[in-house]
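Re: the request from the purification team.
They wanted to know what the chain is likely to look like in 3D before they choose a buffer screen. I agreed to run a prediction and write the result into the notebook, where they can find it.
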Amino acid sequence: MIITLLDGGMGQELIARSGVTTSLWSVQSLLDDPDLVRQIHTDYFNSGAQIATTNTYSILPDRLEYHQLLSQMDKLQRLACTQAVKARDAHGSGLVAGSLGPQGFSYQPDECPPAEQAAEIYHQVCNIQKEYVDVFLAETMSSIDQARGALMAMSTQDKPAWIAFSVLDTDGSKLRSGEPLSDIQSLIEEYSPEAVLINCSAPEPVSVAVAIIKDLAPATGAYANGFTSINAAFNKVGATVDLLEKRTDLGPDAYVQFAKSWAADGATIIGGCCEVGPAHIQALKEHFHKL
């Protein structure tokens, strides 16, 4: 089995290197030091990643409007995409995935607009990103309706659509909305994305979830986060990620053990999410690409 390696997390890596934590999260580095974004993409490629995920997760109208930056959405989207493309081109190989983050804030699907309204916003984002990216990747989709909005928009584009769902840290068989993960089947059949993944959940429930999605799409995959849990106060635009505590038991070797179980259940796209960095990707490469 050939494993395609995604990159790791961007936002937490930016904070670790810059020492700056703001409610703008990863967007802050695009304003202050966009070269740092490109350097992290480069480090992931050098560690073995084959795909750079654009730093566009939180470049969405609801987040930017809160910070009075809505007029800069087009500029910020293009800047983030350009940094990923430059890193890929300098590396000489690889793909660029255009990240579409969750509207309404992470892990809060009830705050997301209805699918039809969300699709209109995602469509605007896709129309900007399509000049730069090879695939679209909707991330941390936490309910069926939230995922539908992203799929509706991605399906209008002439590029592959990948979608990643986030599950409860206490129960990998359920989306963060509480809906059974298995209920996504009809949605996947309707829109036929090329890849279905699990992301931004602890690796233990990710292992449960991967077994559920393994036959839903031509490709399946996983990229877990390294948080101890999701703080209840991390629930709205403006919350800062210092509310989220990093695990101390999820070094590169431990992460590879989880990834091995995902691959055994059919995952062919594997990477990392928040708090999973270049060293973890290097370990994944050393395991999977030497098999």
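For the purification team: The domain at 4-288 is CATH 3.20.20.330 (TIM Barrel).
Please add any questions underneath this entry.
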